Task: inverse folding
């Protein structure tokens, strides 16, 4: 495909926007059959659903969160519902029809004085993750507390503070669920010359029952973390502040995002922070550079903590999702200019022996997912979004399954047709299975044809292609999703 066609396809996906969506896709128009085990449940996804705002293009990180629910009824039909997360930033910009609130990576105006005038109101767009927690859905985002949504209607309820524990606190976009303890784990960063991270564990009644804070040396970037029964795990990800750019950002000429850079002078490392004791932190140096955006699973084996992570050997900010600026098109070839992130198994001895780092598969992988109940203990497989061309990663065109018990076994792969992009694959285990059986749900975006598809695969036969293909209108690219198993709360 020509570069121009690819650019057109990608821009269609990144720029499409809907208001509320309510559509039934009858079983008669679905290719194949929605597996019976999935009926009564739904796929949830979140991502920036409004990026072209009043003639300017917001960085995808600053686009307004758009929640999608794909509910599978007992007759084998699918019900699509789409709703924006109605944060104050969303309401202001919807009323104005233009960018009003400064974002991490987007200014409302090309004129610096207008950006200063916009003030310091924090932009909260709740656009990154979506998790079911008891009777609510939580939309997570960096830069604020998660937003609670009505689980049945997707109506916005407001910031979720869990009885005040998160009041005034931002959290990392990712939340983790310790299924064995039935606790939701949230991590709040406090940036400065040094970086504080406070982990809170929320019990089934919505109370924070554990709170641990760690002070890490220097500025540390985190978007995600992992957990084991005894540890929280963070990437070392050292940041440096570009003072000149920071001043330019303060003066409205540029953004905060342009003022941070990775600190390439430091090697790769992970932090282990005790879940059991206050202040116990271990920094484990890695044998190579590792910039971790997303973690897969982690678990403990003897005197080692084993961590699966998608890491860049070196990373530079800029050009995410092909973003080139507020007045120009997305360029999907931009991410090709850097080395892709790879999946690594990182073995971290607790007795001071050196850490080991083993690459799993030649493919560039991101959006790692695994059995949702295996958080913190060994799991048989990892699913991710990847690229059929192993030299590159995003935009992704393939789904991969990596056998974590037998990494020598060639990874199973399914690739979309040319010009079609795929998102994060969500693994849904069979309730009766041994943890390996189940299905994988993936959204595919056909930018040129202006359509999307929800694809359902047999998890153990990815290469055989989807067992169900659900036709959809072209939906905005999503960041992350979750499976919401069958329940009886009347949702659709
Ligand atoms: Fe993420």
Result:
């Amino acid at each position: 495909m020509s570069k121009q066609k690819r650019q057109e396809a990608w821009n269609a996906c990144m720029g499409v926007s809907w208001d509320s969506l309510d559509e039934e896709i009858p079983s008669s128009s679905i290719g194949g059959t929605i597996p019976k085990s999935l009926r009564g449940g739904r796929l949830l996804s979140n991502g920036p659903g409004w990026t072209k705002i009043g003639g300017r293009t917001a960085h995808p990180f600053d686009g307004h969160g758009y929640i999608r629910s794909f509910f599978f009824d007992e007759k084998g039909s699918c019900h699509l519902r789409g709703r924006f997360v109605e944060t104050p930033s969303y309401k202001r910009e919807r009323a104005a029809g233009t960018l009003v609130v400064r974002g991490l990576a987007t200014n409302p105006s090309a004129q610096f004085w207008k950006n200063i005038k916009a003030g310091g109101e924090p932009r909260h767009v709740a656009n990154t993750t979506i998790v079911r927690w008891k009777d609510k859905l939580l939309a997570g985002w960096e830069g604020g507390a998660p937003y609670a949504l009505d689980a049945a209607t997707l109506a916005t309820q407001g910031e979720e503070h869990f009885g005040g524990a998160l009041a005034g606190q931002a959290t990392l976009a990712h939340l983790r669920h310790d299924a064995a303890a039935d606790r939701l784990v949230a991590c709040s960063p406090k940036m400065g010359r040094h970086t504080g991270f406070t982990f809170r564990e929320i019990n089934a009644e919505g109370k924070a029952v554990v709170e641990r804070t760690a002070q890490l040396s220097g500025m540390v970037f985190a978007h995600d973390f992992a957990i084991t029964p005894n540890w929280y795990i963070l990437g070392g990800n050292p940041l440096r502040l570009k003072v000149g750019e920071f001043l330019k950002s303060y003066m409205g000429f540029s953004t905060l995002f342009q003022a941070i850079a990775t600190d390439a002078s430091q090697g790769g490392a992970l932090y282990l922070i005790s879940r059991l004791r206050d202040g116990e932190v271990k920094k484990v140096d890695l044998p190579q550079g590792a910039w971790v955006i997303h973690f897969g699973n982690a678990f403990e084996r003897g005197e080692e903590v084993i961590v699966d992570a998608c890491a860049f050997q070196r990373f530079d900010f800029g050009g995410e999702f092909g973003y080139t600026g507020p007045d120009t098109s997305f360029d999907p070839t931009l991410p090709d200019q850097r080395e892709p992130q790879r999946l690594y198994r990182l073995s971290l001895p607790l007795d001071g022996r050196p850490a080991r780092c083993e690459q799993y598969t030649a493919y560039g992988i991101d959006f790692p997912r695994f059995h949702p109940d295996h958080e913190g203990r060994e799991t048989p497989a990892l699913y991710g979004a990847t690229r059929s061309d192993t030299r590159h990663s995003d935009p992704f065109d393939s789904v991969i399954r990596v056998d974590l018990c037998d990494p020598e076994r060639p990874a199973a792969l399914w690739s979309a047709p040319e010009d079609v992009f795929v998102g994060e694959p969500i693994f849904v285990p069979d309730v009766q299975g041994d943890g390996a059986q189940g299905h994988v749900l993936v959204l595919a975006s056909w930018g040129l044809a202006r359509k999307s598809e929800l694809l359902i695969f047999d998890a153990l036969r990815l290469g055989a292609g989807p067992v169900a293909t659900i036709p959809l209108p072209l939906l905005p690219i999503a960041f992350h999703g979750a499976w919401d198993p069958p329940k009886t709360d009347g949702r659709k």
